[in-house]
Each structure stands twice: as C-alpha cells, then as structure tokens.
Design a protein that fits this description.
Layout (H helix, E strand, L loop, with lengths): L1 E5 L3 H12 L5 E5 L5 E3 L2 E3 L1 H10 L17 H8 L10 H15 L4 H11 L5 E4 L6 E6 L2 E4 H7 L8 E5 L10 H6 L3 E4 L4 H10 L3 H7 L3 E5 L2 E2 L2 E2 L4 H7 L6 H7 L6 E5 L3 H9 L4 E4 L6 H16 L2 H9 L1
Parallel strand pairs: 1-2, 1-9, 2-5, 9-10, 10-13, 13-14
Antiparallel strand pairs: 3-4, 6-7, 6-8, 11-12
The protein binds guanosine-5'-diphosphate.
Length: 319
C-alpha cells in the first residue's frame, strides 16, 4: 500500500506517474484542501479537482488545471453580469463544482462527495481530502490577509509574504481513512508539491504529523525545489517567508521529523553530497516531469529507492 500526500500541480503529475507503475488500487492519495474556496457560492476544491481530473484523464495538460477542451461561456457571461472572473472556471469544470456543492448541501461530507465523484469517473485509487473540516490557508501580505487563491491566482503571487497560517486547522480532524492510510502504508510519499501551502496544511491537521512520525513505513519526499528555486509557482518565496532555505536542504529541514529519504534532482548532486554529510539520506535523479515518460520514470525511481533495503540503500545513496 502506498500513501501519497499532495497538492494539485507538481503533485498531480507525480500521482499520474505513480498510477502507471503500481496497481491504482494500492494508492491512497491524501489531498490538500487548504486552497478550497467559495466561488460564486459554489464550493471549489482545486487540488482535489486536479487529482481527480488527472486520474480520470480529464485534466488539461497544457494549462495544468481544469478540464481538457473546456469552454468558458459561463465565465464570460458572469463577467458581463459584473461578477468577478479572476478564478478561471470552465463550463465542464463548473459541473464538478455544482455537483459537489449540491452534495455538500444535501449533508454529505467532503470525503463522501470525493469518493462518489471518483467512483463515477472510474478512479480506482482512494482519493481522500485531508479533513472534512474547513481549513483555510491565509497568506499575510502588506495589503492584508489573502486566501491562497487570491494570493496565487488573482494577484499572481506578486505580494511580499509576511507569513502563512491555516485557519481552522487546530480544531480540524483528519478525514476518515487518513490516519489509517498513513498507519497501514508500506511506503509514504510526499509529492513534489509546495511544502508551505500544499503539504503544511495537511501536516497542520492534528494527528497527521504525529502519525507520520510514528509510522514504520519508509517516508520519502520529492523536492519541488531544484537548484535553489521552485520548478514553478511561489514555493521558494513561501519557504523563505517561513524561515527555510530555498534549497533541497530547506525541503529536508521542513520534513525533518519524519523524513527517511529525500529525492532531489540530479542537478543538485553537489548540494545532495553536502546534505548527506549532515545525515540526511538523499537520492538524486531527474525529477523534471515534462513528458509522460518523465513521470513514469520518476515514479519508478522513487518507489525503487523507497523499497531498497537499508544496506543496498546506502550504496544507492552514495551512487
Ligand atoms: P498547487 O496545489 O497548485 O500549489 O500544486 P503542488 O503544490 O502540487 O505543486 C506545486 C509545486 O510543484 C511547485 O513548488 C513546483 O516547484 C513543483 N513542481 C511542478 N512541476 C514539477 C516537476 O516537474 N518536478 C518537480 N520536482 N517539481 C515540480
């Protein structure tokens, strides 16, 4: 059993690779919901949508979000009605948001809604929100506190970041199945997602970080940082704002209390050598996922490295 913690961009590409190298039924995917927002009165869960679209072959690969081949007639019409249009919801994408909102209004939990939608779309893996409670990532900037989507999509992450907090996290509970998936996993993987706004909200739900610390499974993270910068998006800015170095060392430190192995890019071989001297296990490989072959290769290398028995693992890390 493999349990993955993920956001919706680097994470979705990584999950796509994984589902091609393992039996999808052996995969449990715990998804960040800190980016969730109410948009035109609809409940939108951007990272769950990206994972579900990816796993059902619907994700727009060019954009990296939303539904492939979608149209934007409703968005345009809402603009003509004087509504905000900065969050790009396509017409088919809207069907997901309408259905989820309806099911939530009918009294279902986000876990139930997610399972039902995944089932209808033929997804064999278990997709779990991190929590059924509302946990909202808030980004403090000089113009005030913004939701993650306001910071990221509306304002193009141009505002300096003072701090990030997860409102509601301390009162939240892990969604049903989350702790079990961590406890029963043979391998736990942290996708190359934004540590601060995709993985940290999951870790902020009481009980999840403790379960990772206590787990006997090998816990492996793939770095979203290569040669001192994020492959895409604001992970570098946010790590710095959180007091971490923007490097593979910063990523290792972020996860230090439960991390067994860090997968870094081959371009970071020198930094990996330095990190190994401080006792961190690091394996370098090509981690840029441009093509499907890249995704599959990365997933396979990560699993192979995670499964190595300790003695061989040592040899591997020195390689
Ligand atoms: P979000 O929910 O949209 O923020 O998506 P994620 O947190 O899952 O992914 C964002 C992170 O993915 C960024 O920090 C990127 O640096 C990282 N990322 C995107 N593509 C790649 C890739 O091909 N390789 C690696 N190693 N990281 C990537």
């Amino acid at each position: 059993m493999i349990t993955v913690l993920t956001g919706g961009t680097g994470g979705a590409k990584f999950v796509d690779g994984l589902r091609q190298v393992v039996d999808p039924e052996d995969l449990t995917i715990i998804v960040n919901t800190g980016d969730d927002l109410l948009w035109w009165g609809l409940y939108v869960s951007p990272d769950i949508d990206s994972i579900i679209y990816m796993l059902s072959g619907k994700l727009s690969q060019e954009r990296g979000w939303g539904v492939r081949g979608d149209t934007f007639h409703c968005l345009n019409a809402m603009g003509q009605l004087g509504q905000e249009t900065w969050f790009n919801t396509g017409d088919r994408d809207l069907a997901t948001h309408i259905l989820r909102s309806k099911m939530l209004a009918d009294g279902k939990t986000l876990t139930e809604v997610t399972a039902e939608m995944a089932g209808v779309l033929g997804i064999k893996s278990c997709v779990l929100p991190m929590s059924d409670s509302r946990v909202e990532t808030r980004v403090l900037t000089p113009i005030g506190e913004l939701s993650f989507e306001e910071y990221f999509v509306k304002r193009w992450y141009q505002d300096p970041v003072e701090s990030v907090r997860f409102v509601g996290a301390s009162d939240a509970e892990p969604a049903p199945g989350v702790i079990d998936a961590i406890r029963s996993a043979d391998v736990i993987l942290l996708a190359p997602s934004n540590p601060v706004t995709s993985i940290a909200p999951i870790l902020a739900v009481p009980g999840i970080r403790e379960a990772l610390r206590e787990s006997r499974a090998r816990t492996v993270a793939v770095s979203p940082i290569i040669q001192g910068s994020a492959v895409s998006g604001p992970a570098g800015i946010l790590l710095e704002a959180d007091g971490f170095e923007v490097s593979i060392a910063g990523v290792a430190e972020f996860y230090q209390d439960f991390l067994d192995l860090l997968i870094a890019d081959s371009q970071d071989e020198v930094a990996a050598g330095v990190l190994r001297q401080s006792g961190v296990r690091v394996h370098c490989t090509s981690t840029i996922m441009r093509t499907n072959a890249d995704r599959v290769a990365l997933a396979q290398v990560v699993l192979d490295a995670a499964m190595q028995p300790p003695s061989e693992k040592h040899t591997l890390e020195q390689a």
